[in-house]
TrEMBL record:
Catalyzes the sodium-dependent uptake of extracellular L-proline. This is Sodium/proline symporter. It holds the Pfam family SSF. The gene is putP. It catalyses: L-proline(in) + Na(+)(in) = L-proline(out) + Na(+)(out). It comes from Corallincola holothuriorum. Belongs to the sodium:solute symporter (SSF) (TC 2.A.21) family. GO terms for cellular component: plasma membrane. Coiled coil: none annotated. Keywords: Amino-acid transport, Cell inner membrane, Cell membrane, Ion transport, Membrane, Sodium, Sodium transport, Symport, Transmembrane, Transmembrane helix, Transport. The chain crosses the membrane at residues 6-24, 75-92, 126-147, 159-180, 187-208, 228-248, 276-295, 315-337, 368-386, 398-417, 424-442, 454-472.
Length: 498
């Protein structure tokens, strides 16, 4: 174990815990503060928090590793993510910020769905909460897998011990400071990720005479750049671009829009967030591309392509810098895990426990229950992550598709279509989630493969959910007058904000 790297990581861990302590003193007096920071988060923190919680360990490990497996087809995923994030800021962010506050100050996405149709503690809210717990437990486990691989590859620790250290620190500051701690740590972690994803590809590139040499060495391993246009199938392009559809339904991302202090500041958050995302995605793809060339040129043995960022940080930098870069990976991992744990705990508390028991809790009891639920979800995700053969990108893609299909069409239509009904909403959630699970896990093809080998499961899931919402809404009773009045009020407030 490198002493310098251990020191750098220890400093990082201490900083995160101190932020948690600060947030504990500032923003955990009631459930609104614990879950949404009292809706007083700045646009700068909103932007980097949304980006950091979005771009988890797969940004520094999964995406560069995909270049080794998929080649230049990975660029289609990058394009899809950029388009999806931009559309999310444009379409969802302003409307959701206004609507959730108008809907009796809804603190969670399922709570908003229930209030949207005047059905508090309804089957819709409970169903939404169950879907969140299901897919977030899977999503959280992907981050823990990345943490286990990181500690195993860099410090020589046991894979399981690496997972325990990762989840231990995240749970500690999330339990302490709630949403404010998660947002502030995400801001710091986003800055670290930004520096790392600029530094690593730039330094690695210095080992080549020119970009032409990089492409030449890359061609020894994967097809040349033209294959992105000539060899990829139409379904392959659709599958990769469809990653962008997932943004509309990611609770841990869009909850940031609910917490920003003013709808007028969303444009500032969008400009900061999209600039950050563009640089970091280019850096991640460049790390993978240069990594392929570096492995080819120097005949480097690379057992796991998802560790190329780790390998670069080990062999190209001083141990103290290497420790900082390890902290960048941890930042990416922890920022997403903490967000997912907090959203999961809020769903367990508000959308399942309270909705099922109809038991009203004091603010102090609600915060305590939220903290207990953070620990429960963390334990289950830890057990799932103990299998070291798990692929980070595969775990993320399944969870991303599940949320995108179950919630994406519902979020969009809730905000833009006043005639959507309660029963249409339930039909959309269930049909989207079930389609994704069947598409990705049931071996329906002749060779035993799943349908996801043909097209990414978010595509059929999103289509089925959208059609289900529209058809069932047309066939069921229309929303009551109060729902339509609230919708009109939101429209008026948005018009004033512009």
């Amino acid at each position: 174990m490198s002493f310098e790297k251990a020191i750098a990581l220890a400093v990082y861990f201490i900083a995160m815990l101190l932020i948690g302590l600060f947030a504990y003193r500032k923003s955990t007096s009631d459930l609104s503060e614990y879950m949404l920071g009292g809706r007083k988060v700045s646009p700068q923190v909103t932007a980097l928090s949304a980006g950091a919680s979005d771009m988890s360990g797969w940004m520094l490990m999964g995406l560069p590793g995909a270049m080794f497996v998929m080649g230049y087809e990975t660029l289609w995923i990058a394009f899809g993510l950029l388009l999806g994030a931009w559309a999310n800021y444009q379409l969802v962010a302003p409307r959701l910020r206004v609507y959730t506050q108008a809907a009796n100050d809804a603190l969670t996405l399922p709570q908003f769905f229930g209030e949207r149709f005047g059905r508090k503690h309804s089957a819709l809210q409970i169903t939404s909460g169950i879907v969140i717990i299901l897919f977030f437990t899977l999503y959280t486990s992907s981050g823990l897998v990345a943490g286990g691989k990181l500690f195993q590859a860099t410090l020589g620790l046991d894979y399981s011990l690496g997972i325990i250290i990762t989840v231990g620190v995240v749970v500690a500051y999330t339990l302490l400071g709630g949403f404010l701690a998660v947002s502030l740590t995400d801001f710091v972690q986003g800055c670290i990720m930004f520096i790392a994803l600029v530094l690593v590809p730039v330094v690695a590139y210095q080992y080549f005479n020119s970009g032409a040499e990089v492409l030449s060495e890359t061609a020894n391993t994967i097809p040349d750049f033209s294959s992105m246009l000539t060899q990829v199938t139409v379904l392959g392009v659709i599958s990769s671009l469809a990653w962008g559809l997932g943004y509309f339904g990611q609770p841990h991302i869009i909850v940031r829009f609910m917490a920003i202090r003013s709808v007028t500041e969303i444009s500032t958050a969008r400009n900061i967030g999209m600039s950050w995302m563009l640089v970091t995605i280019v850096g991640a793809v460049a790390t993978g591309l240069i990594g392929v060339a570096y492995v080819s040129k120097f005949n480097l043995q690379l057992d796991d392509p998802e560790t190329i960022f780790i390998v670069f940080s080990e062999i190209l930098f001083h141990p103290y810098i290497s420790g900082f870069l390890m902290a960048a990976i941890l930042a990416a991992i922890m920022s997403t895990i903490s967000s997912q744990l907090l959203v999961s705990s809020s769903s367990l508390t508000e959308d399942i426990f309270v909705a099922l028991t109809k038991k009203e809790m004091s603010q102090k009891q609600a915060v305590l229950m939220g903290r207990a639920c953070v620990a429960i979800v963390a334990i289950v995700a830890t057990l799932l992550a103990m299998d070291s053969t798990n692929s980070i990108l595969n775990l993320v893609s399944n969870a991303w598709a599940g949320f995108g299909a179950a919630f994406g069409p519902l979020v969009l239509l809730s905000l833009f279509w006043p005639k959507m009904t309660y029963h249409g909403a339930i039909a959309g959630i269930i049909s989207g989630a079930v389609t994704v699970l069947l598409w990705s896990h049931v071996p329906l093809l002749a060779d035993g493969a799943t349908l996801s080998s043909l097209v990414y499961e978010i595509v059929p899931g999103f289509i089925v959910a959208t059609l289900s919402i529209i058809v069932v809404s047309r066939l069921s009773a229309q929303p009551n007058e109060q729902v339509l009045i609230t919708f009109d009020q939101v429209q008026q407030e948005l018009a004033l904000a512009r």
